[in-house]
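User: Here's a protein and a ligand (NAI). What would the complex look like?
Assistant: Let me lay out the input and then the predicted complex.
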Amino acid sequence: MNIGIIGSGTMGISIAHFMAQKNHSTTIFDSSKISLKQGKKKLLTLLSKLKEKEKYTEKEYSNILENLNFAEDIKKIKKSDLLIEAIIEDSEVKKKLFTEVEKIVSKKCIIATNTSSLSITSLASSVNENGRFIGMHFFNPANLMPLVEIIPAIQTNNKTVEESKKILQEMGKTVVTTKDTPGFIVNRVARPFYGEAIRIFEEGLANFETIDWAMKEIGGFRMGPFELMDFIGNDINYTVTKTVFEEFYFDQRYKPSFTQKRLMEAGYLGKKTGRGFYNYIDESEKNISKNRELGKNIVLRILAMLVNEAADAYYLNIASKKDIDLAMTKGVNYPKGLLKWADEIGVDTIFKILETLYDKYCEDRYRPSPILRKMTKENIKFY
Ligand code: NAI
């Protein structure tokens, strides 16, 4: 296949890496020559490191290089069968680009956007023949993370949906399909992992080192929420939360926190600036209170909030049960699918935790999804 990629930043480069590795001729264009040069350098350095580490044979390495084309002229994407846009997250800039792209590529070319927060339907409106427009949300780094969320716009035709799924599945990706709603699956369902952890910290129930310890040691998560926020970047994580909050017409469940906003304002963005919740320059001994009872309560509270999001997404037909669980295990490495986990803990137990929190705080943030209430009443499981 001929793959066209527009944008040679973090995502464009890692999607190109993946495609070229899967033996597809891949052309990358960026409107900034500097960005294109930087992206190329970054990718070639990574590839040569991987070859040194013997992740690729000489043959594989030379094939990947042969499959990669860096273009300064947008017309070089002309032959694309699949075009993936990965430029800055700006609706107007993206729409202008799609209008231009449509004039260059063939009518058969699938036009996909990797946006993480914009409406696919709104972007599709910039293309005349918009039945072939679709959202393909890859995860960072796209060459390693197996998940891709497929998001049909209102205008997308079935053929495009089926073809997109098939193409990605044949390349070995785990594909889930989701409705065009804010945050799709992962960025919506994962919000409480950060938000509720910060809330527990703000209330002074535990410090963030202890919360991270509990989520890893007792919850089985690979990284604690605060470590993960520092890793993602507090600026990026805060912005995703804020966007989801605004897009959901200020639903209190997604309310961002001042704690994280202040860190962002201070430039304490996390690992990339040497300081976030943690200090990576002057690493001091972590102050963890290894109280298992407290740890268990922390995990259950955050987990109940996560399950509530997953259950509500299912209730509102955002995606299937299976896809919601797959998205969280393959997209953000959760140890278990949240709905499966709810069955193990007991849907009634989860519901009770939420109801208790709702009673205690009288905040809409803790309102249980109607499906959990119904399932508890009727004593049914997700699977
Ligand atoms: P980035 O800032 O690293 O790269 C964006 C690139 O787009 C830059 O090289 C810039 O020169 C180029 N660009 C800007 N306007 C352009 C135009 N009109 N035509 C051609 N190139 C143009 O951004 P990043 O992080 O790679 O994100 C790209 C897209 O992927 C965004 O929509 C973002 O929401 C989405 N995304 C990002 C993820 C991440 O972890 N960074 C994860 C999943 C999706």
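Summary: Residues 6-12, 30-32, 35, 86-89, 93, 97, 114-116, 138, 140 surround NAI (CB under 6 Å).
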